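Q: Got a minute? One more chain.
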Amino acid sequence: MKWPEGIKVGACLTFDVDGPLIWRSKVRINPKFGNPVCVSLGEFGPVVGVPRILKLLKKYDLKAGFFIPGATIDEYPEMVRQVHEEGHEIGFHSYGHINPADLTYEQEKEDFEKGLELFQKVFKTRPYGYRSPAADMGDKTWQLLDEFDFAYDSTMMGTDYPYIKKMKKNSIVVLPMHWILDDWPHFGWNMYPSFPYQANIQSQEAVYEMWKGEFDGMYDLDEGCVFTLCMHPQLIGRASRIKMLERLIQHMKQFPGVWIAKPIDLARAAQKVLG
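A: Always. Here it is, folded:
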């Protein structure tokens, strides 16, 4: 894979704004509201984390990708409006943030339709990028991405450069991610045994070294890599971590030939190269 002339690494900052939705569905005490403490962990993302992220992006004149479930769009319309008005991409992250592997084809299609209808209602347009909730796929997810004419997916982990997934109707670009560049395995600790995504709290300094090292390695390889950071505002929005992200942005911007862009712009450029 080669990026357009003059570009060595494509990079996108992406944020999965799950909010309290993920906690309500995974940690149940009250059948309607979930656990108030863990739900408040999720509320930190849209209420505190996203404004801090937007402020940081504006400071460095960067555009990013925000993958927001439809139910979170419904719950936090002002937050979503600000993200949209500031020119960032809002990608599709399902409506209900339920693992597609747990759904039938009919259930998953219904979730797609409900989410896409909401996008049209709220934004007067549709999303072209997809990231699966729970970073998992059902056996019909790719078929649905093809049926609904998505331009790219950012869930798979098979390479660290863009590639094409040829489907019946469309050639869908894959902008791969990896757990090393996802903040949840590093910061997503919780005390609830029923929650399936368990991790330990790492120092932001250790994570900075990992993320910086992966970026530096991609840059030195010059293989057309894509540096896809997957972050969650309820985690990366903490004060020490947002400062760490700023340091990483400063580091990346020192290098010539680094294109930090919305994922849809990277996908379109990759599509032109890969055909």
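A: Residues 9-274 form a domain with the TIM Barrel fold (CATH 3.20.20.370).
Q: Perfect, thanks.
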